[in-house]
Amino acid sequence: MENAVQKTHGFTKGNQASVGYGRPAGSSNKVPRQVKAVIEDAVKQIGGSQRMVDWAMRSNENETIFWRDIVPRVLPKVIQGDPNNPIPFQLVERRIVHVQQIDEEGEG
Predict the structure, then answer these.
(1) Distance of CA 63 to the CA centre of its chain
(2) Each residue of 10-59: pLDDT tens digit?
(3) 60 inside domain
(4) Helix, strand, coil abundance in the chain, percent, nearest 5
(5) Number of independent structural domains in the chain
(6) Which residues span the domain enclosing 64?
(7) Which candidate, 41, 66, 46, places its Cα nearest to that of 56?
(8) Left (φ > 0), alpha (ψ -120 to 50) or beta: where does 26 sit?
């Protein structure tokens, strides 16, 4: 049954002949770079940042969409700190304690 599915790509695990093909590591992908330029141009033409602010402030739903769906897409995926000036961490611990009520006669 496995032989019934034929692979359509040239990569075979362990085949050294396929090493070196493709885009070099660390190079940027041309298509997303071109798409980003087109989107930036469209944003400028339809009103830029002020138009987006006006849209976001028009309703609570729009503001939620802005913070939930748009902002995370432009934030860095990995946030790196300064190793010489680390952010201090503080442990905050809360405990839920069951307190037994004692009536006026001293019985619980």
Answers:
(1) 18
(2) 666 776 666 666 777 777 777 788 888 898 899 899 999 999 999 999 99
(3) yes
(4) 45, 0, 55
(5) 1
(6) 48-75
(7) 66
(8) left
Cβ distance 57 to 63 under 8 Å?
yes
Encode 25-52 in three state secondary structure. CCCCCHHHHHHHHHHHHHHHHCCHHHHH
Is residue 44 a contact partner of residue 37, using CB atoms and an 8 Å limit?
no
pTM comes to 0.43
d(CA 20, CA 7): 20
Residues 83-105 pLDDT 10s: 888 888 888 888 888 777 777 76
